[in-house]
Amino acid sequence: VGIKHNETVDSLANQASQTGMTPIDFVQPHQDVLRQNKMRAFKRWSSEWSSASSGPGAWYRSLQPTIARRPWLKDFKMSKYEISSICRMRLGHCLTGQHLFRLNILATPSCTCGEEVQSLDHVLLGCTLNRNVLRLPKSVPLPVNAKFILISTNKCFRPIASFLNNNKLKI
Length: 171
Hints:
The chain is mainly alpha-helical. It contains eight helices and no strands. The protein is elongated.
């Protein structure tokens, strides 16, 4: 009482609470609409991502069970070659005998060292042709496999990049 236009505001608020609508034309700032649309799209993408259990992207989803808000490579100072190699490993599209055989590029999945299958595990952890071994941080528990190493993102990407460079490997 005594406040200018208070009765008008109270009347409009009461009307809006009953009908869910306001009689006043309200223009929402475009930044708010953009933010809401981004949030809606991210929630939908996250829901679809987590509900898909097989098919394309299954390997990557097993490494990245939720969608990150920032790219994994944001804080790394690595060359384009190192980043693309790690991306290929994370996507399951590396230049191993196993993958190239699956694509009908090679006649056999075997490694030149004599191993029956040149898998990513074999290249990173067991190939006798590598002059240098993959040195993982002591905080990474043993035994390990390629999938576990790639899940341990921040701790293992730099050692993987060094390993690839030291052995002159193209993955």
